[in-house]
Amino acid sequence: MIDQSVKARVNLYGLFKALELLAQVDKEAAAAIAGRRLAIEFRVRGVGRARLHLNDGQVRLQPPCGRESDGGRMEGGADIILWFKGPEHFNAMIDGRGQPIPLKGFGHLKFLTGPFQVFMGRLAYYLLPTPELLQDPEFFAANTRMTAYVAFHALSEIANYDEEGMHSAHYIPDGILQVEVVDDIALYMVCQGGRLATYPGRHESPRCVLWFADIAALNDLLTGRVHTFDAVALGRMGMNGFVPMIDYLNPVLGRLPAYLK
Amino acid sequence: MDGNSMKRQENTASRQMFERALKVIPTGIPGHLGPVNSQFIPVSAYPFYVDHVQDSYFWDIDGNRYIDYMCAYGPNVLGYNNRVVEAAVQAQRARGDCMALPSARQVELAELLVETITIADWAFFAKNGNDVTTLAAMTSRAATGRKKILMVKGGYHGAAPWTQKAGRPGVTDEDVANNLYVEWNNLKEFEQIVSDNRGQIAMFISTPYHHPVFTDNVLPAEGWWTGVEKICRENGIVLAIDDIRAGFRCALGGSADYFGFKPDLACYCKAIANGQTISALVGTNALRNAVSDVFFTGSYWSGSVAMAGAIATIKELHRLDGANMMIDKGRRLTDGMVKAAADCRLNLKVSGMPSMFYIRITDDDSLMMTQEFTAECTRRGAFLVSHHNHFINCSLTDTDIAETIEIAHEAFRVVAKRHGRLD
Asked: Which among A207, A228, A235 has the least Cβ separation from residue B44?
C-alpha cells in the first residue's frame, strides 16, 4: 500500500529532480525551454511545494528551505504558480489524468501548454522507454542516469515520510552514503538522525560507498534484473565502508517500486 | 603442504564454481557464508569455496592455504578433523546415526553437559542455534504464560522471523510484535522497560557479552548482570543466555560462570561438537516441566553421530583446559597485531574476549581501512573479515600466531602507505 502524499513528494522532489539532468542531456528538451528565464512553483496542499527554475535551457529544482512546520519557506518570487488541491490531484497530473490550477502567471499559459509540455514529455520519453530505444547505448545510459536520479532522490522522501520507510530509516547510521558508477554518475545521501537527503555529486568523505562497475550494472539493479548479492559477488557492484548504512536502507529501497510504478 | 610459502593462486576456480552455483542456487552461496553477508570487501581478495581443512587451516579450491580465524563461524574449536573427535564420530557412524530411537549417546551427552555447565540440570538437543533460542522463547512463554521477549538492541539470536527486525523481507509486524529491546549495559533502561511491561515479559535473552557485527564488542559493565538477574528474579522473568557463539570460549562452565551470574536457560551450539551438527538448550530444574510441555522436534535432532562428536569434543576441551587455552592464544595474537599496527602508525582496537576478538582500525569511522587490512591479510593467507568477531581454536600453534602477525604487519604497511601514514 502506498501513501498518496508520499507519492506526491516522490513526484515533486524525486521525479522533478530528473528534469535538471534532462535539460543537460537532451537537446530537444533544452530547445523547448531555450531563452526562457522563469520560476515555476508547484504548490500541493498537504504536501509542500517546489520551484522549477528555467534559465535559458538549464533547470534547477528548488525545494523549500527551513522547517516544514513553518510551511517550508521559499526565497524570492515565482513567475508562475500552479496549485493542486491535494496529493491525489498532483499525482493525477503526473499520470496525465489531471490539470493544475494556475494561481499566477496567466501570461505564460501559452508556454505552459506548449513548449513546457514538450519539455516534460521528454522526461516520459526517457523514463518510459520502448524496448527498441533501450537498444541504443546512448539512450540506455541516459535512461539509467535519469532513473537513478529519480530513484535515489525518491528514496529520501520514502525514508522520511512513508510509515514503513521511516521505521527502517530510523536505524540507518549517521553519515554520508555515496552511490556512484565508476567514472560516471554520482549521488550521495546525507543520513542524520534517521532522516535522509539526496544530493547529486561525489562527497569527499563518505562513510559508506555503493559503487557500480558501469551503467549496465546500475541499470540491472534499478530494473531488478539482477539480485544485489549476485552482482556484488560477481564484482559488477560493491560496497565498502560502514555497510549497515546500506543494510538498513534496503527495506526503504524495497518500497521504491510501489511508488515509482 | 605449506601453502603460504608457495606462490598464491588467483581465485579462478572459486569464481567459476560460483558462476555455476548462481544458475541453480539463489545468490550462489546463501546465508552467512555468502560473499555479501561475509563482507568480502573487495570480493576479489577472498576465496568462495573450500577444498579441504585440517587443524587451523583451510585450502580453497584454487589450492591456497589459509590460517582460518573464522573457524566456520565458531564450530571449529579443537581444530578441523580433530583426531579424537573424528574417531568417536567414525565409531558411532558404524553403529548408526539417524535411527528409529535415540542411542545411549543422548543420555551420556546430557549427563556430560549437566556436569560441565554450572547452571544445567537438564539438556535438550536440536541441530542449530536458532532451534534452541526459539525453544528458549517457547519454554519461557510456557512457564510464565506471558508473551513478550526482551532482548538487547543489535543482538543476534538466529534467523527465525521472531529474531529479525520488522521491515526485513519475509518478516511481518506480527512476527516481532512481542519483542522489546534494551541497550546493552543500560540497567536503568532495563528497569524502566520491565516496569512499563510489568507481568508481560516472559524472557530476557542476551549473549553473555555484546558481540554485534560492524561494531566494537563490549564486555558487561560492573553490575549489569547482577542487576539484570535481580530484576528478572523479582519480576518472574526467565533469564536466558545465548551462549551459541561464546559458549566454551569464555569458560567451560558456561560464559555466565565467567561473568558471575546464573541464568535459567542457556543456549549452546557452535563449540560443543567441533563442527558436528548439534545444538543444546540447558536449563534449571525450575523450567524442567515447562520445557517438557513444549512440543518441539526435528527429523535429525536425535542423530547419534553428532552426539558422539559432542561428547568427545567436550572431554577434549576439559583435558586441554580449552577455554583458557584459546583466551591465551587470542591474547598473544592480538597483542602482536596491535604492536604491528602501531609500527605502521595505525591504531588497532581489539575488543571482546581474546578467544573471539573483534578488530577495528580506529583511524577512520567507516571501516574502510579495516576492510583494506583484512583483505590484504586474506590475500596473504590469514583469513580475516571486517565485520564480525573472529574465533580462536585450540589447534592454533605458536608458528601460526607468528606467521599471522607477520602477515598483519605487511598488510598494515600496505594500508598505511595507501593512506599516507608511511612513506
From this structure: A235
Q: Find all residues with CB under 8 Å of B121, minimum gap 6, and list them.
A: B114, B282, B283, B284, B285, B288
Q: How far is A8 from chain B (nearest CA, A)?
A: 23
Q: Kindly indicate whether the domain formed by B83-320 is annotated with CATH number 3.40.50.970.
A: no
Given this chain, do its domains B12-68+322-418 and B83-320 carry the same CATH topology? no
Q: Out of A168, A227, A254, whose CB is closest to B27?
A: A227
- Alpha carbon of B19: minimum distance to chain A alpha carbons (Å): 8
First to last CA, chain A: 12
Task: Indicate which of A232, A247, A249, A253 best probes the interface with B, i.e. most B CBs within 10 Å of its own CB.
Answer: A232
pTM more than 0.95: no
- Per domain, the residue ranges of chain B are 12-68+322-418, 83-320
**Which residues in A lie closer than 8 A to residue B29 (C-beta atoms)?**
233
Measured between beta carbons, the chain B residues lying within 8 angstroms of A254 are 169
Smallest Cα distance from B371 to chain A, Å: 7
CA distance B185 to chain A (A): 19
Residues from chain A that touch B26, judged by Cβ atoms under 8 A, are 227
Long-range contacts of B104-113 (CB under 8 A, 24+ apart): B105/B304, B105/B307, B105/B308, B105/B311, B106/B302, B106/B304, B106/B307, B108/B307, B108/B311, B109/B280, B109/B307, B109/B310, B109/B311, B112/B310, B112/B311, B112/B314, B112/B315, B113/B268, B113/B272, B113/B280, B113/B282, B113/B314
Ordered per-residue pLDDT tens for chain B, 423 residues: 444 555 788 899 999 999 999 999 999 999 999 998 889 999 999 999 999 999 999 999 999 999 999 999 999 999 999 999 999 999 999 999 999 999 999 999 999 999 999 999 999 999 999 999 999 999 999 999 999 999 999 999 999 999 998 878 899 999 999 999 999 999 999 999 999 999 999 999 999 999 999 999 999 999 999 999 999 999 999 999 999 999 999 999 999 999 999 999 999 999 999 999 999 999 999 999 999 999 999 999 999 999 999 999 999 999 999 999 999 999 999 999 999 999 999 999 999 999 999 999 999 999 999 999 999 999 999 999 999 999 999 999 999 999 999 999 999 999 999 999 998
CB pairs under 8 A between A and B: 69
Please determine, looking at this structure, whether the domain spanning B12-68+322-418 carries the CATH number 3.90.1150.10: yes
